[in-house]
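In line with agreed milestones, the collection of sequences with tokenised folds has grown. A representative record is reproduced below.
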Amino acid sequence: MSRRLVVLLSGRGSNLGALVERVHRDSDVAAEIVGVVSSRRNAAGLAFATDAGLPAHTVDHRDYPDRGSFEAALDAAIAPFEPDRLILAGFMRILTDDFVDRFSPGMLNVHPSLLPDFRGLDTHRRALERGDAHAGASIHVVTPAL
């Protein structure tokens, strides 16, 4: 059974690129990326998605007066894809407990540090400032608690 993935992003799409490479080009992965949704209309990841032949949509958070209306629009953009999993791949919005619970436990986040070090933003800068000799990324199940 192939899992249906929807990727949420806000920026360059480098994580999306890695996912496309692995998921769509390796037959041993039981998943397919069925859609991409960006929280920013000018995100470079949208062009990458289109070039990869993936349906891409924008739900720009700046178009909504509050988090609730943004999340309602985001949910409406995701729903037609009928995803088994949401992959937050450089998605730069904090989601409410209600939104997370709707997709729990099927929401995964790609975070650019070895957690629990460097939660939040500017992970690479903070690792360099601390003099870390090793770097990496963490993939974790999204829960209501940050």
